[in-house]
Amino acid sequence: MKKYLLSLSAALLLFSSSQAPARADIVVDDSEDTDQHVYVHTDVLDTVSSIDLPYVLERALKDSHNLTLLNLKYSAQVSKQGDLEEQLDTMGSASFSPVHVPNTPAELATTPGMPAMTDPVTVTWTVYQNTVMNQMLQGMGALAGGLNEIIYKQREQMNTAAHQLGTDQRNSLLQRDEAKAGISLQMIAQYAQLLGQKKQLAFMQEYETVMEKDLLKAQLFAQQGLASLDDVQTVQKAINKQKDDIVTLTNNFRLGLVQLSVDIGISYNPELILRDIEGIQVEPVAESDTMTLLTNSYQMKMSGNNMDEAVWASDHTVTENTYGETYLGVNIAISGEKNEQTIVDLTKKIKLTYNDANNAYQAVLTEQRNLNDVKADYANMQFRYSVGVISKHDLNKFEVKLHQSETTLAAAKLKYYVLKEKAKAMDSGFIQ
What we know:
By secondary structure, the chain is mainly alpha-helical. The chain has helices at residues 10-16, 53-62, 65-90, 105-110, 120-223, 229-264, 290-296, 298-316, 322-386, 392-427, and strands spanning 3-6, 26-29, 39-40, 50-51, 273-274. InterPro entries: TolC-like (IPR051906).
């Protein structure tokens, strides 16, 4: 088995050294097939004990391969456009000055500077030679004209390609900004989901403890003949299901934690502390005008660039026949139709985003009201316990119900926060 150590290219280091964690050398293994190479590397990951949302967002933007590729793509487009424009500046043309030599006896006799010819054979031979020469000169002129026509078409094609690259560069910058907004929203949703799972796990484990006490109570009652074995088995089945649910949620949480760690370039730590999102203000979602959102959106700007490019190409592209002109006209129509479809699609997404955000806001209000009701009931239960009406076990069970309501409210707030951030991103041009 042969192995080679390769370093990253200078271009990749230029764009990724400040955005990605350090990397070990690349190992290339071509064990059997000498034509098949596999390029892999090992990231040198940071180790942390706790994280919060600002830290996650900062790391995600620095460690984004997508952003690195967009930067490289933009750089390649700039270089290619510069190369085409330089070729256009240095591209010359074929030149030929038309020349005619006398090739008839009359022209020979009247051309200034020509020696007098009296021998018929000499005149005939000279006429023949000059006729052949004129034909050669005419051919060279036609060749020069053909070359100039080819060069002209090449210049137009290169000019069109350079202009298209200019449009592509503008779109690449828009795609980069759009990707940044998309990455931020994705990480917010991912982090919020992990927080919600963590809180849910804590509650489920607490509730399992209460269920274990219920099982002990049922077993004691069964021993005293106050409960049946079916009652004990019912509680046991509920505990078994609770344990299974905890295992499933734990596995999902660990998977999400692994994915988050990979996304932000840190070592996986099962004991990683996730800090709560601070400053979640629950308030009605402010809705912006749809036309304003469309005008500011990245997708509509890119669509506008594509429409402008199609119009420019129609005005500057050299065509040989009506078929080429028809193609250019159809291309404008296609870009216009795509623009209309983008408007429709984005309008639907805007309405859906605001609807989801408003529903999430109402859900928070509902869960807050439910929590207030449970708190009031819990206060009554505490009073009943203080006067000896209910047992400590019953009070503890109701306290778990209070914690369940608190967990549900926390989950509703996290969902609201994610959707509120999604709605806010539309004001910056990102519509998802």
